[in-house]
Amino acid sequence: MPIPLNYLLATAAVLFMIGLAGVILRRNLLIIFMSIELMLNATNLNLVAFSRYLGNVNGQIFVFFVLVVAAAEAAVGLAIIVALVRHYKDSLNADDFNLLKG
Amino acid sequence: MNASTVIFIILAAVAVVSGLNVIFRRNPVHSAVFLAFTIVCIAGMFILLNAEFIAAIEVIIYAGAIIVLFLFTMMLLDIRGGMAGRQLQGQYKIAFPVAILLLAALVAVAIGTVQLTGLPAAQISSAQAAQIGSVQNLGQELYSNFLLPFEVASLVLTVGLVGAIGLAGRGPEDAGEAERVKDAEVFDAELREAEQVGEMHIPEDILPAASQH
Predict the structure, then answer these.
(1) Is there a domain that residue A56 lies in?
(2) Which residues does chain A have within 8 Å of residue B13's beta carbon, measured at their own beta carbons?
(3) How buried is B84 (Cβ within 10 angstroms: 0-12 exposed, 13-18 middle, 19+ buried)?
(4) Beta carbons of A76 and B106 less than 8 Å apart
(5) Considering its fold, how many domains does chain A have in total?
């Protein structure tokens, strides 16, 4: 008897909500980024769980592509943070960056 | 309750506690280390789900590359500057209850889906699952049915590489900017000198402030 699917989905939901709460609550750009990674991982857990219980490999292939996008996103996002801090404002506080505010 | 369920519950508890630490630590370095803990726990869950290849690349890419990238960024930036001031957004009084409500809804949907639809319909045995998650099977799928997305993935990574270098690298226009500032400084100094010597009279409002640059 494998792990009940309920447990997996509930764990993924909890991890996703922790990530979402981090994005909404924190002001530090780096921690907002880490929370996004946490949310992506929660989704990965769901995909692998359904892949296991439906006997379909496509879920795992999707996780592979999510990892590719996460790697590219982390590289570009951190480069944007480095560029912002070096050229615009010496801060990591998300409230300090309001260039697009009307 | 069998052994794999017990291991899963332990991994899930560690993952959730580390995840809470990621968002509630003041120091981003601690957050990054706790994120690594969470990733390792999730990789352990993948192993329990017979997805060994995915577990391996999860650890390699997340713990090995992305978190190290985070730590490098923190090393490059003076993170103490970003730590000043309040850490939480002002809307946390509303956000906390909403987050907890949404969590309850998500868990209810997760459990309700399983109860209502009767998933999993057909029990997949552990040996079958291991065969499905094997490197051979994944590779075969990736190079046949998912060939185009696989190639697009390489394009995404190339664009990410070029974008990261273009954004964070010190390009030639950067040097040009520094030169322009320097030229302007020299010009201002000459202007002020001329004014002092009395060669020419410059109105006060045109003369730039000495502390401008």
Answers:
(1) yes
(2) none
(3) exposed
(4) no
(5) 1
- Provide the ipTM: 0.93
> What is the full per-residue pLDDT of chain B (213 aa) written as tens digits?
788 899 999 999 999 999 999 998 888 899 999 999 999 999 999 999 989 999 999 999 999 999 999 999 888 887 665 555 566 666 778 878 888 888 888 888 888 877 777 766 567 787 888 888 889 999 999 999 999 999 999 999 999 999 998 888 765 555 556 666 667 777 778 777 777 777 666 666 665 555 544
The whole-angstrom separation of Cα A102 and Cα A88 is: 18
DSSP string, B51-68: -HHHHHHHIIIIIIIIHH
- B19 vs A10, A18, A63: nearest CB: A18
**Domain hosting residue A28, numbered range:** 5-89
Q: What is the CATH number of the domain that holds A83?
A: 1.10.287.3510
Residue A102 lies in a domain: no
The answer to whether B20 and A25 are in contact (CB under 8 A) is no
> Is residue A80 a part of any domain in this protein?
yes
Element of type H or E holding A37 = helix A29-54
Listed by number, the residues of chain B in 107-136 with a beta carbon closer than 8 Å to a beta carbon of chain A are 107, 109-111, 113-114, 119-120, 122, 124, 126, 128-129, 132-133
Residue A33 · residue A74 · CB < 8 Å: yes
* Chain B residues whose beta carbon lies within 8 Å of the beta carbon of residue A75: 69, 160-161, 163-164
Kindly state whether residue A14 falls inside one of the protein's structural domains: yes
List Cβ neighbours of B188 (8 Å cut-off, separation of 6 or more).
B208, B210, B212, B213
